[in-house]
Amino acid sequence: MNQRDHKKILREKKLKATKSRLAVLQVLESQRQPLDIEAIKTHLTDTRPNNVTLYRMMEDLSRVGIVRQIDLRQGRAFFEMMPLEDHHHIVCASCNKIEDIHGCILVDEIERTIKKSKNFDSSIDHVFEIFALCKACKN
Ligand SMILES: [Zn+2]
Ligand SMILES: [Zn+2]
């Protein structure tokens, strides 16, 4: 898996490549699953931004599309690197285990549906998360 050039990505979006932004992107890239603020903090070693700073940073990174914010119905935001490939998440409604679902079966259907809309003709993004019971919780 190629490591993305975070410095370059930040500069392209006109954000300064600060040490803490680079550290956060490194955490998201290496963990490869959606993380909440607390989980991001536990993986940060050299830099310790407080929650307000970290939330603001995540907002900035989400706004420019470097990071994607995900709602997993857990009352707090989760974040991941903006995926290069469309994928979705399946979340255990009991133990909150998260797994990526690769590929997207929806995108053609979504575009067809939008064509029938009065005011829109195509999408730029979509959100779709799946909630289920994992095998361990089912037993
Ligand atoms: Zn479970
Ligand atoms: Zn999709």
- Runs with pLDDT <50, length 5+? none
Biggest sheet descriptor = 3 strands, mixed
Please count the helical segments.
6
Known CATH architecture of the largest domain: Orthogonal Bundle
β-strand percent reads: 15-25%
Report the CATH C-level class of the largest domain: Mainly Alpha
Bound molecules: zinc ion
> What does the average pLDDT come to?
91
**What number of structural domains do the residues give?**
2
Q: Care to describe what's here?
A:
The protein has 139 residues and is of the alpha+beta class. The protein has two domains: 76 residues, Arc Repressor Mutant, subunit A, CATH 1.10.10; 52 residues, Dna Ligase, domain 1 (2-Layer Sandwich). The chain contains six helices and five strands; from the N terminus they run ααααββββαβα. The chain has a three-stranded mixed beta sheet with strand order 4-3-5, with no helix packed on it. A two-stranded antiparallel ribbon has the order 1-2. The mean pLDDT is 91. The protein binds zinc ion (ZN) (2 copies). One zinc ion binds next to helix 6.
Summarize this, please?
Helix content is 38%, strand content 18%.
